[in-house]
Amino acid sequence: MKKEIRKKMLELRSKIPQDLKIRKDEKIALNFINFLKERHVKSVLLYASFGSEVDTWRIFEYCKKLSIKTAFPKVKEKFLEIYWVKERSELAKGYKSILEPCNAQKAQIDDIEVIAVPGLAFDKNCFRIGYGGGFYDRLLSKKKGLAAGLAYEEQVLDQLPLESHDIKVDLIITDERVINCG
């Protein structure tokens, strides 16, 4: 079931016209930044967006301007390690050609106030389906801060099939709304 949802949502996301995707990315970035500002967040974990994912580079630039400490994940075996990143030049192609920190200072999950979480599908109860590696489920099981799924409105479904290891996010930020499950 999850495999079919992954395939369908990846297709759906990749069919969003580029000009519309840019507008949606801008709305999501602004909603996310407003969320950070309202809570006076000082540290965030972003993912290095690739392909048709919600763009995080605009968010990274905002965070730099607002002096919000920003970390990015790096795949280490079956886990995500996190590192503080000040400039995009501190990232290099890593796991599956996704940009990862290189020569950066290691961060601890306890130091992160808000985690931006990618996904292929989310539901109204804040559960998510990622790419199937379980990296974010393992990371979220150790978090102290809030986890915010970033998604296009098209990626939000009524309900997803769940497994015992699935961990939900605290909220989902889309181009149209914020779904709070905290």
UniProtKB/TrEMBL annotation:
E.C. code: 6.3.3.2
Domain of life (superkingdom): Bacteria
Entry GO MF terms: 5-formyltetrahydrofolate cyclo-ligase activity; ATP binding; metal ion binding
Stretches assigned to coiled coil: none
Enzyme class, first EC level, given as a word: ligase
Cofactor: Mg(2+)
SUPFAM superfamilies: NagB/RpiA/CoA transferase-like
Keyword set includes Chaperone: no
Protein name per UniProt: 5-formyltetrahydrofolate cyclo-ligase
UniProt keywords, alphabetically: ATP-binding, Ligase, Magnesium, Metal-binding, Nucleotide-binding
Binding site for substrate: 53
GO BP field: folic acid-containing compound biosynthetic process; tetrahydrofolate interconversion
Residues the record lists as binding ATP: 2-6, 128-136
Keyword field contains Ligase: yes
PANTHER family, per database record: 5-FORMYLTETRAHYDROFOLATE CYCLO-LIGASE, ATPASE INHIBITOR/5-FORMYLTETRAHYDROFOLATE CYCLO-LIGASE
Family per record: Belongs to the 5-formyltetrahydrofolate cyclo-ligase family.
Catalysed transformations (reactions): (6S)-5-formyl-5,6,7,8-tetrahydrofolate + ATP = (6R)-5,10-methenyltetrahydrofolate + ADP + phosphate
